[in-house]
Write a structure and sequence with these properties.
The protein is mainly alpha-helical. The chain contains 9 helices and no strands. The protein has a domain of 150 residues: Tetracycline Repressor, domain 2, CATH 1.10.357.10. α5 runs antiparallel to α7.
């Protein structure tokens, strides 16, 4: 191995170590944001939780705002992977839509974050606070709604949903059910929150079906 190759190999190792450290920091930061809110997420508080120096953290995140945005991006990446990408295992149409909705509800419990989904929580924390962090929250929620609407479009394309189904309105109503579940389950501690959410979702599905033949109640993965 010549000098140039050794230098390149060393740079790759440093980059890999840096990426691993950043991932570990984001994991801790996600838990802080989920449990205490994004405003509690500062370079100082994170230094205490991780045992890293403030200067070391500044090397990864230049400011509190940059840190909050990075945590939002990581939270959104996990939602995409575990909710939306996981649903792609199901065939296009109603089966995939049901999987997506079920994954979303299960994610709230299985995300291994004490305070639940940070993306949902951030929507309430930053709804009336303009700035780059709010813009990031809006971007991620808009992307999720767009993906949901596209999934509904596929139900129309497969012929399972009526051609006049408004996919944007449909996605809006699914988000409404998901938010109602989040409120009922996390704040009200209602034990039948998931059951109510799936019942509302199945009523929404039934209203759009072209024929009763494809109706089949979704299993409740949160039960």
């Amino acid at each position: 191995m010549n000098a140039a190759q050794r230098l390149a190999d060393s740079a790759i190792r440093r980059l890999s170590k840096g990426e691993e450290t950043r991932a570990q920091i984001l994991d801790v930061a996600l838990n802080v944001a989920s449990e205490s809110g994004f405003e509690a997420l500062t370079i100082g508080s994170l230094a205490e939780r991780t045992g890293l120096s403030k200067s070391g953290l500044f090397a990864h995140f230049g400011s509190k705002e940059d840190l909050q945005i990075a945590v939002l991006d990581e939270g959104a990446r996990r939602v995409t992977e575990r909710v939306f990408m996981a649903a792609l295992n199901e065939p296009r149409g109603v089966a995939r839509l049901r999987a997506l909705f079920g994954n979303w509800l299960v994610w709230s419990e299985n995300c291994q974050l004490k305070g639940g989904c940070p993306i949902m929580a951030a929507a309430f924390e930053f709804d009336d606070r303009p700035g780059p962090v709010r813009d990031t929250v809006v971007r991620h929620h808009a992307r999720m709604q767009s993906a949901m609407a596209r999934t509904v479009d596929l139900c129309i394309e497969t012929g399972e949903f009526r051609p006049d189904t408004d996919s944007r309105q449909y996605a809006f109503e699914i988000f409404g059910i998901a938010n109602a579940y989040y409120f009922s389950h996390r704040l009200m501690r209602e034990v039948d929150a998931a059951q109510c959410a799936f019942k509302a979702f199945e009523r929404l599905v039934a209203d759009a079906l072209t024929t009763p033949a494809v109706r089949s109640p979704a299993a409740n993965p949160a039960a």
